From TrEMBL, chain A:
SMART domains linked: VWA
Gene3D superfamilies: von Willebrand factor, type A domain
Descriptive protein name: VWA domain-containing protein
Stretches assigned to the VWFA domain: 573-754
Record organism: Candidatus Desulfatifera sulfidica
Signal peptide: none
UniProt-listed CDD domains: vWA_norD_type
UniProt-listed PANTHER family: NORD PROTEIN
Top-level taxon of the source organism: Bacteria
Automatic annotation (TrEMBL), chain B:
Annotated ATPase dynein-related AAA domain residues: 40-174
Name of the featured protein: CbbQ/NirQ/NorQ/GpvN family protein
Superkingdom assignment: Bacteria
Domain CbbQ/NirQ/NorQ C-terminal: 187-269
Molecular-function GO terms, alphabetical: ATP binding; ATP hydrolysis activity
Family annotation (Pfam families): AAA_5, CbbQ_C
Keyword tRNA-binding among UniProt keywords: no
Matching SUPFAM superfamilies: P-loop containing nucleoside triphosphate hydrolases (SSF52540)
Keyword terms of this UniProt record: ATP-binding, Nucleotide-binding
Length: 756, 272
């Protein structure tokens, strides 16, 4: 097809967008010699890909011809769907990998060889790993099977075996070995060096003449120990894995240097620990190794074997272990350990400092004076010597003798127990380091001291009340940790507009509204009877008897003799969080607003307390929350005017908005606290708050909400449901609606289920 | 006559046989010390971890009757304190469980106190602080608790906190015992005793329980409690195959979420 025709076709397919001509020409250059039929087939996919991502579309064009050389044109549809799925779940990179490995990712499934991908199994594997190893462990796909103790890297695809079950089993086996390593402290042990000093594993390894060899032997011995451990602990798994383990036999090269032979035997033993090695010498070596009881022990053994083998090791000695044992990555382990120490210190110091600030001012002052004095003295002292002089340490941590684990701070002979959260932090530090360094205490006291007497100064430039932004952490799934105080949330007022929006909406949905009224009335009727009322629908027999008896006994009888249907005391508080991002521009935005009107009507009928907040913003420094209706505010012209004033604004940074709602809920006492988000689904901000990052942060914010007793729920207004909604909210915790008319039915059902 | 009636009723609350209770720390010593110092007890801990059982044991050990009230949101003050009833045309005062316990120096255990409404729980405030008094308004009576009386309340901190509802003066008088699931060996021992199964199987069940308790991040609000493990043990001892028993009384009891169901199934198939 000639270039002009191609270009024309292209522009037609991506309309109304008008992409840059150079880009287009560059992409189309490869199609100059392509026949028209093929071009048509390939280009037919553009309208599906272009709106999702332009770069993905260009990538696709680069790959598609190549793809058609190995798949049938009729399969292109399917393949593109796969590409888009991968883009949705893993971003551009994932889609690129998928496209590049057409053989592995697409064709072999067609042929019936069923590999299993990380993406499809992670939903099952992650909870499995979290249950076994630790609730914080994370999984990620990557080229090597390694761990830094926080994240386990797993192969993106396993297709060692013909069928899916076996491949999945191998994933499970890998994780189970990692569990064994973690329980056995394979990576976290601190072996003694020759002087009897404790060293972290990486340091200890470095001292060997052949660190890599030592590492390999150590991992081999630990894998052997792990195998014994797993046979004991997870007999079901090991029974099932027996078959696949044998298939995983490492094929050793023909070379026969002693190291290779040793590893060959070691491998066999890991795969089948009951085997007895034929070579008597190796058998002897491995029998002692088999008796290793701890990581320290294994390290010791490994050092001896290293000393024995290092001189004999050839350049090409094969030290591979079975695939599922993974590899060592001690620098990563170190990094995590250091981060963790730092994090523990920071949190503890922060929290202790703010705790000190809550003490009565008298005690605080004493503490501050002590600290200042101490600082002054130690400042001068430090110039002369390196050793700190401890003078009358005012703040010490003590544990009461009688076995309770409660920690106290000793302050001028008074013992003040630390609050629970600090106790927990302290014991986490003790678990990690073995003790709580004194430095932590003095820096907390110092920080609290400098916080004393700080008077908030009003902003002088401006007469309006400057409201301090609320700061929230943000979850970074890549580092499995929070970015501290990352987002600034500001609450803003929304001025009501006068328009006929209310009137038209009400008129248009008259039928739905009256249906909602009926349904929600029934909901509030479902309520239980309350006893001891001054009036009501029926006589409370118990109260009547009691009051008769009271009057017989000469007491004033109670007049609370009735049973009444409880309506107003449902004790439910609901906050609606409305997405005002510009992706809601168009019918979605209108639908959201209209839905809000219906929702308010329903809420007014049922009588539960509810608040409405909109959110949008741009970048982490400006997340905006718009007050539409506060929880205790009436639903009146003003609030209605604010609903009418809602409109698409900027971006959707969902996490901080949810965290702010969680924060607002803190001051609300209710039996049931519901947070209902109304959105078009995708969390996204101007910066890199996108894709998986945004979804994971949102999911995490929702988990935080749940753990503070809030029940999150989501109403998505969109053409179709998206898979990630389930991931963020949990199955059954969201509904999706593509027409406002369908909302009442779904909403009434949902609300009934949620609140009863 | 009143005295006798309440004596008969109280005798039902006496625990005659030693209940099986495996101590987890020095909770027995602490609770006994609280008892002899006339301090009320606060038990926190997740569901099914042995709080109720501990109270039964304590009552037996101290040789006091144990009056347990399971709190719910319809519980009224009269339900706790007592009310007049008419017997053969005569108004007769009947002590509620709390009054009964105070009068006769029993242990009154308010289980799941958070479930009760606040206007109900106010009656325990003067009992819990150093006054140790129970006002019976209808009778114009003010009972002072004898030294043998003990008040104990329990709640599950994962869900709500009672502490914020208490005045600091009251709060600080409670001796708080924090319960959690026992360590592996001890929990297995409990499952052996109560579930009627062998130690190996019990240990594996406990391991399963502990794995499910690690699923918080994945969205499971509570893992399998000791009680659930015991139940599973009972099913198994009655001949139900292990996998089915786990499925029925652990996996399905904990969640509806298909991914979590799958993950717990994988744990079961790894363990057994
Ligand atoms: N330390 C223990 N010694 C003996 N049995 C125990 C122990 N801990 C738990 N159990 C067993 O677990 C079962 C459940 O414990 P219990 O009923 O005391 O839980 P609970 O903490 O009161 O739970 P809930 O908060 O749901 O009322 C008991 O019936 C008992 O069989
Ligand atoms: Mg109980």
């Amino acid at each position: 097809m000639d270039a002009e025709a191609l270009k024309k076709l292209y522009y037609r397919l991506v309309a109304p967008d008008i992409p840059n001509e150079w880009d287009v020409e560059e992409q189309l250059a490869a199609y100059g010699d392509c026949d028209e039929a093929t071009c048509q087939i390939i280009f037919a996919q553009i309208p599906a890909i272009w709106p999702v991502s332009h770069s993905l579309c260009y990538n696709y064009l680069g790959m598609a011809r190549n793809a058609l050389s190995c798949i049938d044109t009729s399969q292109l549809d399917n393949w593109v769907r796969g590409v888009l799925d991968h883009y949705e779940s893993g971003g551009l990179r994932a889609a690129q990998t998928y496209m590049a490995e057409i053989e592995a990712n697409f064709l072999c499934t067609l042929r019936g060889e069923e590999g299993v991908t990380f993406a499809e199994t992670t939903k099952l594997l992650l909870p499995y790993a979290q249950g076994l190893i630790s609730p914080d462990i994370q999984l990620t796909p990557g080229p090597r099977i390694v761990t830094d103790t926080e994240t386990i890297t797993l192969p993106p695809l396993i297709r060692e075996f013909q069928n899916k079950e076996d491949n999945f089993l191998l994933y499970k086996l890998i994780i189970s070995y990692q569990w064994a390593f973690s329980t056995n402290q394979t990576l976290t042990t601190a072996p003694d060096d020759y002087r009897g000093h404790k060293l972290w594993l990486s340091k200890a390894m470095e001292q060997a003449t052949a660190p890599d060899l030592l590492g390999a032997i150590y991992l081999g011995l630990e894998s052997l120990r792990a195998t014994h451990f797993l046979v004991r602990e997870l007999p079901g798994l090991m029974r099932r894995c027996h078959k696949i383990c044998r298939l995983l036999q490492v094929v050793q090269t023909q070379k026969s240097d002693p190291v290779t032979i040793f590893f060959h035997q070691l491998n066999k033993l890991i795969l089948e620990p009951t085997l007895i090695p034929q070579d008597p010498e190796i058998n002897a070596l491995l029998t002692t190794a088999q008796q290793s009881k701890s990581a320290q022990d294994s390290f010791h053994q490994a050092t001896m074997l290293h000393d024995l083998f290092a001189p004999k090791a050839g350049d090409h000695s094969d030290t591979r272990l079975p695939l599922y044992c993974g590899q060592l990555h001690l620098t990563a382990v170190n990094r995590v350990r250091q981060q963790k120490t730092q994090q523990l210190e920071n949190r503890f110091v922060d929290e202790l400092a703010s705790f000190i600030l809550t003490l009565p001012p008298g005690e605080q002052k004493q503490l501050a004076e002590h600290t200042e004095q101490k600082e002054r003295i130690s400042d001068t002292q430090c110039e002369e010597s390196d050793t700190a002089v401890i003078i009358d340490q005012p703040l010490t941590l003590a544990r009461l003798e009688d076995n309770t684990t409660t920690l106290f701070i000793n302050l001028d002979n008074k013992q003040i127990p630390l609050p629970e959260s600090l106790q927990e932090r302290a014991s986490a530090i003790r678990d990690h380091l073995g003790h709580i360094p004194d430095r932590y205490l003095s820096s907390a006291a110092g920080r609290a001291g400098s916080g004393l007497g700080r008077v908030p100064t009003p902003d002088t430039h401006d007469n309006t009340i400057i409201q301090a932004p609320f700061l929230y952490d943000e979850w970074d799934f890549r580092r499995k940790g929070f970015r501290k105080n990352w987002c600034a949330v500001i609450e803003k007022d929304l001025s009501p507009t006068r328009s006929n929006f209310m009137a038209t909406t009400r008129a248009r949905y008259r039928g739905q509204i009256s249906k909602l009224h009926r349904q929600f009335e029934m909901l509030s009727n479902q309520e239980r009877f309350v006893r001891h009322q001054t009036d009501g629908t029926d006589i409370d027999f118990d109260s009547l008897v009691e009051s008769l008896a009271d009057s017989r006994a000469g007491l004033a009888p109670s007049d609370r003799l009735f049973i009444r249907l409880q309506r107003n005391e449902r004790d439910i508080a609901v906050l609606f969080l409305v997405d005002l991002s510009n992706s809601t521009e168009g019918w979605v935005g209108t639908a959201i607003k209209e839905a809000l009107v219906l929702i308010c009507e329903a809420m007014e009928t049922v009588g539960d307390r509810y608040g409405i907040y909109g959110f949008s913003g741009m970048r982490r420094s400006r997340c905006e929350i718009f007050r539409v209706k506060e929880l205790n505010e009436k639903y009146n012209e003003k609030t209605q005017g604010r609903i009418a004033a809602l409109g698409p604004r900027e971006y959707t940074r969902m996490g901080p908005a949810i965290r702010h709602m969680t924060h607002l809920f803190k001051g609300i006492d209710a039996r049931l606290r519901l947070l209902i988000t109304i959105t078009d689904g995708k969390p996204e901000d101007y910066d890199d708050y996108k894709g998986e990052y945004a979804i994971e942060d949102t999911r995490h914010a929702l988990i935080e909400a749940k753990s503070s007793g809030i029940h999150p729920f989501c109403i998505t207004i969109d053409q179709q449901a998206h898979e990630y909604m389930g991931h963020m909210y949990g199955k059954g915790n969201y509904i999706f609606v593509n027409q406002v008319t369908k909302l009442p039915a779904r909403m009434a059902d949902m609300y009934r289920i949620l609140t009863s | 006559m009143n005295k006798i009636a309440s004596k008969i009723r109280l005798d039902e609350h006496r625990i005659i046989c030693e209940p099986f209770y495996l101590p987890l720390g020095n909770e027995i010593a602490i609770a006994s010390a609280a008892y002899s110092s006339s301090l009320p007890l606060l038990l926190k801990g997740p569901t099914g971890c042995g709080k109720t059982r501990f109270m039964e044991y304590l009552a037996w050990k101290l040789d006091r009757p144990l009056v347990t009230v399971s709190c719910h949101d319809d519980l009224s003050t009269s339900d706790l304190v007592g009310r007049y009833l008419i017997r053969s045309g005569e108004a007769v005062w009947t002590d509620g469980p709390l009054t009964m316990a105070v009068r006769s120096g029993a242990i009154c255990y308010l289980d799941e106190i958070v479930e009760a409404r606040k206007d109900t729980t106010v009656v325990i405030h003067p009992l819990a602080d150093n006054r140790r008094e129970l006002p019976i308004e209808k009778r114009g009576e003010l009972l002072t608790a004898p030294p043998e009386f003990m008040l104990a309340v329990s709640y599950n901190p994962g869900y709500q906190s009672i502490l914020k509802d208490l005045k600091p003066s009251t709060r600080q008088r409670f001796v708080a015992l924090s319960f959690d699931y026992p360590d592996l060996d001890r929990e297995a021992e409990i499952v052996v005793r109560e579930g009627g199964i062998g130690p190996d199987l019990a240990t594996s069940l406990v391991k399963l329980g502990r794995m499910t308790r690690g699923l918080k991040e994945s969205g499971l609000s509570e893992g399998a409690s000791t009680r659930l493990l015991i139940q599973t043990g009972k099913l198994i001892s009655l001949g139900i195959p292990v996998h089915e028993a786990c499925r029925a009384s652990i996996t399905e009891a904990l969640t509806d979420d298909p991914e979590l169901l799958g993950a717990i199934d994988e744990m079961v198939s790894s363990l057994f």
